[in-house]
């Protein structure tokens, strides 16, 4: 059961980014991947008007959603579509969410996760300050969905700093967790690997960490280091910077053995309630 993560250095031009993503997804499919994860903001990084971009997609006037449907169908590949700005379903004029969509191999949308934790922080880099809530509204629901490679929990980037979300995903049956990201170079250098390994270890899940890695419009620099981490916390593959496709296999028997030998889920004494949504396929 092959898993792929895609690393990109996305710019502002949507169609150029989609062409790059298509090339990398084709490589994943050719090498046997059944599910691939794109990074956060895979279609546009530094777009001047996320709200307008999301509204166009919601009204059927954009390029991204039709591209995702066609790419998944033509490649026969399940795709976690990083994030894109989308208003709430049925409300095209609403404030966009940083939305991670899951498409099946026939091009159908199976699940939608709206990023819960927004990146409103000060960072000692050339930007100094990030206020994601200026452009996006926060989501509120936990999302898991069944896929051919296992039960998938969805998360995004800054979520990685909130372990209670990942504990809830495990309790909801997650065996794999996607984490499309665009960590800054400063925060990524300090914390990225520690966070993705910790989330894999504590949930005993495969962590599919697809990142942005390079320089983007406005001089923004992202850390990269996309990786697939196994349930024991081992980095199965990693790429530092630039575009790339990483591939690894899920060992279902080994994952089950890890969970049986160390049944941490059964030992949990504290839980945090989350509203649960499941994929449309369920």
Structure description:
There is one protein chain. The chain has 282 residues and is of the alpha/beta class. The chain has a single domain, classed as Carbon-nitrogen hydrolase (Nitrilase/N-carbamoyl-D-aminoacid amidohydrolase, 4-Layer Sandwich). 28% of the residues lie in helices and 28% in strands. It has seven helices and 18 strands. It has helices at 14-30, 50-58, 64-75, 163-171, 185-203, 252-261, 264-267, and strands at residues 2-7, 33-37, 78-80, 84-86, 97-103, 109-114, 120-122, 129-131, 141-147, 150-154, 176-178, 206-209, 213-215, 221-223, 226-229, 235-239, 244-249, 275-278. The strands form four sheets. Strands 1, 2, 3, 4, 5, 6 and 17 form a seven-stranded mixed sheet that branches. β13 and β14 form a beta hairpin. The longest helix is centred in the last third of the chain and has 19 residues, at 185-203. It is globular and about 50 Å long. The model has no long low-confidence stretch (mean pLDDT 95).
Q: Which bin fits the share of residues in helices? A: 25-40%
Number of individual domains: 1
Helical stretch tally: 7
Outline type: globular
CATH topology title: Nitrilase/N-carbamoyl-D-aminoacid amidohydrolase
| Fourth-level CATH superfamily | Carbon-nitrogen hydrolase
Determine the structural class based on helices, strands and strand pairing. alpha/beta
Helix and strand element order: EHEHHEEEEEEEEHEHEEEEEEHHE
Alpha-carbon distance between the two ends: 21 Å
Assembly state (oligomeric): single chain
Largest sheet: 7 strands, mixed
Rg is 17 Å
CATH hierarchy: architecture: 4-Layer Sandwich
For the record, what CATH class applies?
Answer: Alpha Beta
**Beta-sheet strand percentage?**
25-35%
How many β-strand runs?
Answer: 18
